[in-house]
Amino acid sequence: MGSLDWKSLAYSLRELRSDRSTAMIMSRLTRPTLPKTVETIQAMQPTAQPITAALRNWKLVFWVVVIVLAPILALSLIEIMLGASGVLALPSWMRSLGIVSEEQGRLFLLALVTIFLTIAVSVYGIVAVFEIISAEPRRRPRKRQQ
C-alpha cells in the first residue's frame, strides 16, 4: 500500500478552495442585479436646436462682445498710456537699458497689469462661451399650458 502524501493533499485542498472562492466571486460579479420592482423610465430626447437659438441667448452675445472688444480697448489704453508717459519718445538704447523716469515705470507696470487682466478676461469669456454653447441643446423646451 502506498503512503498518503499529506503535504500534496493539503496543497490540493487549498488550491481547490481558492478556485471555488474565485468561481463564487466571478459568478456574483456577472449576475445582473435588478431591482425588485422595475419601473419604466421615459427618457426625453433632447431636440437639437439650431445655432440661431443659441445666439438668442443674451449671455452668449455679451461674452462674444467682451472677447472682441477687450483686446481692442486694452491695446488702445496701453497706447494712450505709453504715449502720455513719453516712453516712446525716448531713444531705443535708453528703452532697452530700462532707463526711464519713475512715472514712466509706473505707467509701464500699469500697462503690464492691463495686459494680464485682458488675457484673463478673454480666457474666461472663451470658457463661458463654450459652456453656454454646450449647455444649449440640453435645455428642455417649455411645455405650453392650454
Could you please describe the fold and organization of this structure?
By secondary structure, the protein is an all-alpha fold. The chain has a domain at 51-135. It has helices at residues 6-30, 51-55, 58-85, 92-97, 102-135. The N and C termini lie far apart (95 Å). It is elongated. The protein contains five helices and no strands. Helix 3 (58-85) runs antiparallel to helix 5 (102-135).
Topology:
Layout: H1 6-30, H2 51-55, H3 58-85, H4 92-97, H5 102-135
Give a short overview:
The protein has helices at residues 6-30, 51-55, 58-85, 92-97, 102-135.
What brief labels describe this structure?
mainly alpha; 146 residues
Work out the strand percent. Answer: under 5%
Q: How many H/I helical runs? A: 5
Q: Tell me the major beta sheet.
A: none
What's the quaternary structure here?
A: single chain
* Overall pLDDT: 77
Helix share bin: 55-70%
C-alpha end-to-end distance: 95 Å
Radius of gyration: 36 Å
Q: SS-based structural class?
A: mainly alpha
- What are the segments in which pLDDT stays under 50 over at least 5 consecutive residues? none
How many E strands? 0
Shape annotation: elongated
Order of helices and strands: HHHHH
